[in-house]
Design a protein that fits this description.
Ribosomal Protein S5, domain 2; 8 helices; binds ligand 2P0; Mev_diP_decarb; EC 4.1.1.33
Length: 325
């Protein structure tokens, strides 16, 4: 019996990963840049044994469906090839999310699983190799191997596509991210399906590709200079552009709900009142607001007033993957 356990934190992209160049290897169309956060994480234990006849996947004490287990099994198959073993595995995973608001993240989940497998099978992968492995499970997971600001270099093949931490001179420790959790009744378009549909059909997708490198360069410069305003402005417009591409897909779709718009408007009002803060959104209606720590309380208060205390969660910069003994 071989076992390993790891914890990985979720990350939020300031420059978004949106579209795959290669679906099987999960090579992205563009570089992305994220901030790893401390508020949401996954702990995963994996046990490989000759006595198991199938892979089993438990999430928060519940045995998962065949479909969910299949995704995990496909990832475990990659690991089994690397370790040259046929052993089946039991995967026991816990998501640590303050409320059940659809924030369970494939980024922290697949990163933790990759780390646990590395440990269990003694693969001795370094962080770069671990990032490449996590990428095969879910693209954004390759960024959760590292803490702080992280760039995923798109690369051109399996070897060259991985994330790395970018130097920031501790800038991330001055920042906070306020999560505004918005429940809506809409049926989700998964990020995987959403990005595929956008790449294949959106007339705005080329515009995304044409401008994302400039956004990335400006963001990296702003991080180096610790310019909060520029970081926020670039993040906000990059996120809006990503969401713009979905409106021109066929069939068109959006992740925004009326409450998402309400939260965006509140961010603009906060700025107008002299509190610099900026929003971004991912493949769902939640709004994430980047603010300097010195202004986090004012931003939290505004959203608690507009929504409710349970819908507002404060996060700070988090660390990379850790092995749990
Ligand atoms: C991101 N998202 O950069 C972007 C922004 C969603 C919107 O990475 O298909 O779950 O497993 O590679 O990593 C979510 O996509 O997709 C994501 P797969 P993943 O954070």
């Amino acid at each position: 019996m071989l076992s390993g356990k790891a914890r990985a934190y979720t990350n939020i992209a300031l420059i978004k990963y949106w579209g795959k160049e290669n679906e099987e290897l999960i090579l992205p169309m563009n570089n992305s840049l994220s901030l790893t956060l401390d508020a949401f994480y996954t702990e995963t234990e994996v046990i490989f044994s000759d006595s198991f006849t199938d892979d089993l996947f438990y999430l928060d004490h519940e045995l998962q469906t065949e479909a969910a287990t299949k995704k995990i099994s496909r990832f475990l198959d990659l690991v089994r090839i690397q370790a040259n073993t046929n052993k089946r595995a039991k995967v026991i995973s816990h998501n640590f999310v303050p409320t059940a608001a659809g924030l369970a993240s494939s980024a922290s989940g697949l990163a933790a699983l990759a780390g646990a497998c590395n440990e269990a099978l003694g693969l001795e992968l370094d962080k770069q190799a671990l990032s490449r492995l996590a990428r095969r499970g879910s693209g954004s997971a390759c960024r959760s191997i590292f803490g702080g600001f992280v760039e995923w270099e798109k690369g051109h093949d399996d070897q060259t596509s991985y994330a790395q931490q970018i130097p920031s001179n501790g800038f991330e420790d001055e920042l906070a991210m306020v999560f505004v959790l918005i429940n809506d009744q809409q049926k989700d378009v998964s990020s995987r399906d959403g990005m595929r549909r956008t790449v294949e059909t959106s007339h705005f997708y080329q515009g995304w590709l044409d401008s994302v490198e400039t956004d990335l360069m400006e963001l990296k410069q702003a991080i180096a200079e610790k310019s909060f305003q520029t970081v926020g402005e670039v993040m906000e417009r990059n996120g809006l552009k990503m969401h713009g591409t979905t409106l021109a897909a066929n069939p068109p779709f959006t992740y925004w709900s009326p409450d998402s718009l309400k939260a965006m408007q509140a961010v603009r009002e906060l700025r107008a009142s002299g509190i610099p803060c900026y929003f971004t959104m991912d493949a769902g209606p939640n709004v994430k607001v980047l603010v300097e720590k010195k202004n986090q309380t004012a931003v939290q208060a505004k959203f608690i007033e507009l929504f409710s205390r349970q819908q507002v969660i404060l996060a700070h910069a988090g660390q990379g993957i850790t092995i749990i003994e």
